[in-house]
Design a protein that fits this description.
The chain is of the alpha+beta class and about 120 residues long. Helix content is about 30%, strand content about 20%. The strands form 3 sheets. The chain has a 3-stranded antiparallel β-sheet. A two-stranded antiparallel sheet has the order 4-5. It has a two-stranded antiparallel ribbon with strand order 6-7. Strand 4 and strand 5 form a beta hairpin. Helix 1 crosses helix 2.
């Protein structure tokens, strides 16, 4: 099993973090905002998605979810996180697969293929 607490936030760096109307409503409630205020503040328009999470700069992945703490490397809205985040990885984690491949190719079970260490 992979421990997500040791990940630098790979899934949070996806170019599109698609949201549902319910996700925006959850964020609005979490931040005590109206739906419209939350939609304007937290989402952006993206091809193929009615709502997409706004992102911010990140030293490891370039861009990351606006609610990701880039120093602590964790979600700051965990209890209000979007459905797509609640469901992730839904089977397989791409970052875990990447690490497993790197560790195998390096023949080193402790090899970490990132500059971030926790």
């Amino acid at each position: 099993m992979y421990n997500c607490a040791k990940c630098p936030g790979y899934c949070c760096s996806y170019p599109l973090i698609q949201l549902t109307k319910r996700d925006v409503e959850r964020l609005a409630k979490h931040f005590d905002l109206t739906y419209e205020q939350a939609r304007k503040k937290f989402t952006r328009v993206e091809v193929g998605a009615k709502y997409a999470m706004r992102r911010k700069d990140d030293k490891i992945f370039g861009r990351i979810c606006r609610f990701f703490d880039t120093e602590e490397r964790r979600c700051t809205i965990y209890t209000a996180r979007p459905a797509i985040c609640r469901e992730y990885p839904g089977g397989r984690c791409g970052y875990y697969d990447f690490l497993a491949s790197e560790r195998n190719s390096q023949n080193d079970p402790d090899h970490v293929a990132t500059t971030w260490n926790r």
